[in-house]
Write a structure and sequence with these properties.
Layout: E1 4-7, E2 10-13, E3 18-24, E4 33-39, E5 46-51, E6 58-60, E7 68-73, E8 78-83, E9 92-99, E10 109-112, E11 116-121
Parallel strand pairs: 2-11
Antiparallel strand pairs: 1-3, 3-8, 4-5, 4-9, 5-6, 7-8, 9-10, 9-11
Length: 122
């Protein structure tokens, strides 16, 4: 029943910005840590950013620090990923995930959206 649905992906040029959204159905995952992962063609899925259930703590992959910002609106049960200064190497399918455990317990992200494509051209 519970679903995570990503939106906001698209084709942009290097240096542009995108804001991804991930909405959860009903009140599902409302007290869960939330995260964004991404997977580029031929690459393994990798962690990008996470936010604790309260929104008080955030974590980032080193290569996106200072460029990406994760946030959540618990009233809307939605998590966002603001991506600025996009680079071609950011091109990937971006997946939203949820975990009932600590935000940095990456193996506990068991709930996933279908992904949204982000393509950054040079």
């Amino acid at each position: 029943q519970a679903q995570l649905v990503e939106s906001g992906g698209g084709l942009v040029q290097a240096g542009d910005s995108l804001r991804l959204s991930c909405a959860a159905s009903g009140r599902a995952f409302s007290d869960y840590a939330r995260a964004w992962f991404r997977q580029a063609p031929g690459k393994e899925r990798e962690f990008v950013a996470a936010v604790s259930s309260s929104g008080a703590s955030t974590y980032y992959k080193d290569s996106v620090k200072g460029r990406f910002t994760i946030s959540r609106d618990n009233a809307k049960n939605t998590v966002y990923l603001q991506m600025n200064s996009l680079k071609p190497e950011d091109t990937a399918v971006y997946y939203c995930a949820a975990s009932s455990g600590p935000a940095m317990s990456l193996r506990e992200y068991k709930y996933w959206g279908q992904g949204t494509q982000v393509t950054v051209s040079s």
